[in-house]
Amino acid sequence: MTTENASSFEIYSKELTYRHRPHDEESEPSLKDITFGLPKGSRTLLIGANGAGKSTLLQILAGKRLLTREGTDVRIKGKDVFRQYPGGVTFLGTEWAMNPVVRGDIVVSDFLNSVGGYRHKERRDKLLDILDVDLDWHMHAISDGERRRVQLVMGLMGEWDVLLLDEVTVDLDVLVRDDLLTFLKKDSEDRGATILYATHIFDGLDAFPTHIAHMRLGSFVKPPTAWPFPGVKEVGARTRLYTVALDWLREDRTHRHELEKQGRKGRGAQNHNNVPSDSETFYKKYDYSH
């Protein structure tokens, strides 16, 4: 992939490296030399273990994190995401539901109107039906899953061109999630809209993506590749996509264990000989009253 063909992709990244502490060159980068391009109208699933860098990548594409490294080129719809951010891009992440503003005592109908719902009445009403949202709900008195549905109505009621989704279906029940993904697939096909979606839930997703990608420790093990892969079979009750994702995540864990043998900090139970095993000694050790 070259810079010259960047304009042929709806989402494009070249040599993207990102550190949460940009001036600490010794720190491990969260993303390392990420280069890829996604065509207009594609629907791509980002697959990887927790900490693989999926959320960081989506946040950078959404313009929420500043890049300082020379040579990095990140574009959506042909425009630099930091210098001339394009219109028509929607990012929906998990942090929204924790915002105290959206947990206040405001009626859902008033909330949606305050963010322009009245301008998108047809799509808004369709999404209200798909996501089974009650306009008379009070935002402070509903569950996290119901609040997530309101977020999705708010984010999707405008006609987006590029949709960046970070685990936002995790709170939805199976029926609502299936109806939403059916809507998103049709919307993408009808309007040529592009979707990049990070998820850990693969049930019922086989027919959704046009591409899938595998991230591990901040890099692409497999860049976005056309789906379905030839020769992949269903195993028992597991779909083809679920089978591929499970195999990739097992490989990730094996790879991490090998790195831990080479000195990388390990996870899980550790043998701390300095922690007492009997309760009386343990509580004496942590008695701070003296």
Key descriptive features of the protein:
globular; 6-stranded mixed beta sheet; 7 helices; alpha/beta; 290 residues
Notes on the structure:
With 290 residues, this protein is α/β, with parallel strands linked by helices. It has a domain at 1-82 and 210-264: Rossmann fold (3-Layer(aba) Sandwich). It contains 7 helices and 10 strands. The chain has helices at 54-61, 108-114, 121-130, 144-156, 174-191, 240-261, 279-285, and strands at 11-18, 31-38, 43-47, 73-76, 79-80, 89-92, 162-166, 194-198, 211-216, 219-226. A hairpin with a 2-residue loop joins β9 and β10 (219-226).
Short description:
This protein has helices spanning 54-61, 108-114, 121-130, 144-156, 174-191, 240-261, 279-285, and strands at residues 11-18, 31-38, 43-47, 73-76, 79-80, 89-92, 162-166, 194-198, 211-216, 219-226.
User: How much helix is in the residues?
Assistant: 25-40%
CATH topology title of one domain: Rossmann fold
How many helices? The count is: 7
Low-confidence stretches: none
What is the first-to-last residue Cα distance?
Answer: 66 Å
Strand order of the largest sheet: 6-7-8-3-9-10
Structural class: alpha/beta
Topology as H/E string?
EEEHEEEHHHEHEEEHH
Strand tally is 10
From the coordinates shown, what is the CATH architecture of one domain?
Answer: 3-Layer(aba) Sandwich
Largest sheet composition: 6 strands, mixed
Shape: globular
Note the beta-strand portion: 15-25%
SSE layout and pairings?
Elements: E1 11-18, E2 31-38, E3 43-47, H1 54-61, E4 73-76, E5 79-80, E6 89-92, H2 108-114, H3 121-130, H4 144-156, E7 162-166, H5 174-191, E8 194-198, E9 211-216, E10 219-226, H6 240-261, H7 279-285
Parallel strand pairs: 3-8, 3-9, 6-7, 7-8
Antiparallel strand pairs: 1-2, 1-4, 4-5, 9-10
